[in-house]
Amino acid sequence: MGSNILITGAAGYIGGSIVAHFLATTNNVVKKANIIAAVRTEEQATALSKLGIIVLVLDLTDESAVLESVLRHNVGIVIHTASGLNTEIALHLVTALAKRKEVSKQETYIIHTSGESAFSASTGWPQGETQDTSLFEKEKELADSYPVRKTDVAVIERAKATGVTSFVVIPPMVYGKGSGQWNQLSVLLPVYIQGCFSSKSVRKFPNNITVSAVHISDMTALYEKMVEKILLKEPIPDGEKGYYSAKAHEVQWWELLTRLAVRLEARGLAADSTVRLWSDDKAAAKVLGVPEQFVSILWKSTSSMVPVNKRYLGWEPVWNKERLLANIDEEIDAVLELGEAKSSLISSLFEVAKG
């Protein structure tokens, strides 16, 4: 059975890589699906047009435009990667899917992309181990204190109320060069590496934290597994139980930065291989180019997420900590080649900081 799948944020790092992965897949179930890419600008649309798929320049803040596009293209599945911060646009997608279900009498699905920051102590989440099987009640309780949580809860509740099946994917730190047509860089590691380039040094925060991580190729494989289950109508946890952590492995920041410093010095990109401390968050924010209030959330927060629901998908990541550390030059090369990420995330953080 095929389906029409709308991927929002298709010019972004995760969304673009999902598009590329789905188009290249050998999975006989998923390859039958029709991919529709939603982007923000004509320039992005031109870049994606060479893929031979339908590309929509779609303003996700315009509810009527979203509804018209979902109905006109008979969209049965939405993979939403455009923003976990903006609740409004996520709800527009759910509402459109509900209408499509009403018209077609067929089930509709939304796969919403959240972020692991919603489950870290730095944003008010309780410390301690958390399984992705039991997140909803606590997230609902804390929804108003962090926009990503607010969006997760709103999607789940609106979907339940309107008969749309919902899933929430939780990416940790995603690394690796993406395969999309527009933005091929993530944010956390590339921004840090850019800061190392500009200062000719590597710096660390006083506390050595352990972070969850996943390679972009493993990340896109998780979405493929989920879509395969949907298309085959094989039941997997959804709604309040349908959170899926994309954590593949852990790595300590200091261990990662030590390896990075050695390679940058060897390549003449850092003055030496000593990893020094940031003087304070203000200094880090200036070098890294983010609002000071988000330094802690982006680079000093950790989560004790335990990915349990992946067992229902049969998802087995290929990359691990050792492979990441051994291939840190690939991260350096990607930033040297591509420069800064073509991402709206940093500008979104400045908007939130102003508001």
UniProtKB/TrEMBL annotation:
<dbReference type="InterPro" id="IPR001509">
    <property type="entry name" value="Epimerase_deHydtase"/>
</dbReference>
<dbReference type="GO" id="GO:0005737">
    <property type="term" value="C:cytoplasm"/>
</dbReference>
<dbReference type="Pfam" id="PF01370">
    <property type="entry name" value="Epimerase"/>
</dbReference>
<feature type="domain" description="NAD-dependent epimerase/dehydratase">
    <location>
        <begin position="5"/>
        <end position="229"/>
    </location>
</feature>
<protein>
    <recommendedName>
        <fullName>NAD-dependent epimerase/dehydratase domain-containing protein</fullName>
    </recommendedName>
</protein>
<dbReference type="InterPro" id="IPR051783">
    <property type="entry name" value="NAD(P)-dependent_oxidoreduct"/>
</dbReference>
<dbReference type="InterPro" id="IPR036291">
    <property type="entry name" value="NAD(P)-bd_dom_sf"/>
</dbReference>
<dbReference type="GO" id="GO:0004029">
    <property type="term" value="F:aldehyde dehydrogenase (NAD+) activity"/>
</dbReference>
